[in-house]
Design brief:
The protein is of the alpha/beta class. The protein has ten helices and nine strands. Bound molecules: S-adenosylmethionine (SAM).
Length: about 260
């Protein structure tokens, strides 16, 4: 088969070091009947070892040439190839009990993580290779430099563990940054959550629009109706100091005060 020319616009950096491929597959620990969806299979670095363990695998690949290769390499009863931009894929069509895996194209990592959040109830776990800097932000604790909107939004929905680093030399062509692998397990239905998830997202985004400013200033017109003492947050606190639980309490207070309209009303 002809050599594939890596396409920059699709963030193509192919894993070329078996030690890291094996470590990633070990982390996933696939069982034969698992319903696994791999995002960005590329030249099959993960696809092949995953298929060694699985009865069936679904992959989503945007690159027409790579999707064609995969169809030529594997029969459809073993590998279903969805040729699409993953951001256009409706994950509800895959059913429930999904395990999502991928060495992700770094240029779409945040939008993809947000695309998957609404289907978290249908997911068992997600294992992703990403830019290490993004994973550091995903798992960051309050009052640390990496803590921000991405941390709060994802931590409100998933338990996340950074597993191991992957150096640029493990890829062909090598990216400019260090990568890492993260495990994301959706939190149970009885997790602490805001009364309105759209409102939660709005409040977190507004609070972090100026992360170092005092909340009473960033929230401006909303600040007057917040029962600061009741929710255990100082009006002089900054967004970067608030835990997920405090963001939930702040959101619920704003929804109760009818400053934020609940969705569909
Ligand atoms: N999994 C392979 C590996 O580990 O070597 C390839 C990883 S490479 C970093 C990312 C893969 O995602 C490429 O195959 C690329 O074509 C694909 N890709 C990029 N953007 C995509 C998108 N929006 N939707 C689906 N696949 C995409």
């Amino acid at each position: 088969m002809t050599q594939h020319q890596a396409r920059k616009r699709f963030g193509q950096h192919f894993l070329a070091d078996d030690a890291y491929t094996e470590a990633m597959v070990r982390a996933v620990n696939p069982q034969a009947s698992d319903k696994v969806v791999e995002i960005g299979p590329g030249l099959s670095a993960l696809t092949a070892p995953l298929l060694d363990k699985l009865d069936h695998l679904t992959v989503i690949e945007i690159d027409r040439d790579l999707a064609g290769r995969l169809r030529a390499d594997y029969p459809p009863e073993r590998l279903r190839v969805v040729e699409s931009d993953v951001l256009d894929v409706d994950f509800t069509t895959f059913g429930t009990g999904l395990r999502v895996v991928g060495n992700l194209p770094y240029n779409i990592s945040s939008p993809l993580l947000f695309h998957l959040m609404p289907v978290a109830d249908a997911v068992i776990d997600q294992h992703f290779m990403l830019q290490r800097e993004v994973i550091d932000r995903m798992v960051a604790a309050p009052s640390t430099p990496d803590y921000g909107r991405l941390s709060v939004m994802l931590q409100s929905r998933y338990a996340m563990t950074k597993l191991f680093d992957v150096p640029p030399e493990a890829f062909d062509p090598p990216p400019r940054v260090v990568s890492a692998v993260v495990r994301m397990v959706p939190l149970a239905a009885d997790r602490l959550k805001a009364s309105d998830e759209a409102a939660f997202s709005t409040v977190v985004a507004r609070a972090f629009s100026q992360r170092r400013k005092m909340l009473r200033r960033v929230l401006a017109d909303w600040a007057a109706v917040v029962p600061w003492d009741d929710i255990g947050v100082a009006p002089t606190a900054r967004a970067e100091e608030l835990s997920v639980e405090q963001f939930v309490a702040l959101t619920d207070a704003l929804v109760a005060a009818e400053v934020l309209q609940p969705k569909n009303q």
